TrEMBL record:
It holds the Pfam family SCO1-SenC. PROSITE patterns: PROKAR_LIPOPROTEIN, THIOREDOXIN_2. Belongs to the SCO1/2 family. Disulfide bonds join C110-C114. Cu cation binds at C110, C114, H198. Keywords: Copper, Disulfide bond, Metal-binding. It comes from Gelidibacter sediminis. This is Protein SCO1/2. The lineage of its organism: Bacteria, Pseudomonadati, Bacteroidota, Flavobacteriia, Flavobacteriales.
Length: 235
């Protein structure tokens, strides 16, 4: 009887120790991060706001496998719209999975802000390591699909010497374009038969199609944009 009681106590002690260790292990990995990744992969021990952008910190989900092929709820790959590139080939955004995407919404007949955005995109691309561009797409999305046919996009790409990798030009229907612009928080409005008023935003998406950074303005310092692209390509 004494031996049986001793065995039961030993089992109970081992069970409690195991539970305690598992609890400690779980509490050790609790961390918070800025959804805009203002300070790269830096995490915080307590909830609060990012000291850079003031956005609420987000709890790190330790159950998520970063190498998983699953698409998160915030990924643009959830959009099922069909797009056509400058070569007349149809694709869906999910076909770009695995590439870091640097995207801007423009239109080819623009004579004001768009040429500056094109220059900004070129500057960003030139600052990235050449050996890291195999998993990169620099994407122009037209906000004027009625004018920007695949033929027009191809001509524009050739005129600007952007007719090779990693450059990609896309157009879709008016409704699909509006939906995509809403996801990027890009506003645009037709102000004349040939002109649009629009936001000047360059967006960076990681390989899972999740927005990690946005650069707003024309001719602004792109150091943070370049760093976020490098970080996304390194994962």
């Amino acid at each position: 009887m004494k031996n049986t009681l001793l065995i039961l106590c030993s089992i109970l002690f081992i069970g409690l120790t195991s539970c305690k260790n598992e609890s400690a292990k779980t509490s050790d990995v609790i961390a918070y991060y800025c959804p805009m990744e203002c300070e790269g992969d830096k995490t915080y021990d307590e909830p609060g706001s990012c000291p850079v952008c003031n956005m609420d910190l987000v709890l790190v989900d330790t159950n998520v496998d970063m190498a998983s092929d699953e698409i998160s709820e915030t990924s643009i790959f959830n959009l099922t719209s069909t797009w056509t590139n400058q070569n007349g080939e149809d694709l869906q955004l999910e076909d770009l999975k695995g590439d870091v995407l640097v995207m801007v919404m423009v239109y080819t007949s623009c004579k004001a802000a768009c040429p500056r955005l094109v220059a900004d995109m070129r500057n960003i691309e030139e600052r990235l390591p050449k050996d890291a561009k195999n998993n990169l797409k620099m994407v122009f999305v037209s906000i004027d699909p009625n004018t920007d046919t695949p033929e027009r996009l191809k001509a524009f790409a050739e005129e600007n010497v952007m007719d090779k990798e990693p450059w990609l030009f896309l157009r879709s229907s008016v409704d699909n374009t509006r939906e995509f612009a809403a996801v990027l928080a890009v506003n645009y409005m037709k102000i004349s038969p040939l002109d649009f008023s629009h936001s000047n935003i360059i967006s960076v998406f990681n390989k899972q199609g999740e927005l990690v950074y946005q650069q707003e303005g024309l001719g602004v310092n792109s150091d943070a944009t370049v760093q976020h692209i490098k970080d996304a390509m390194a994962i």
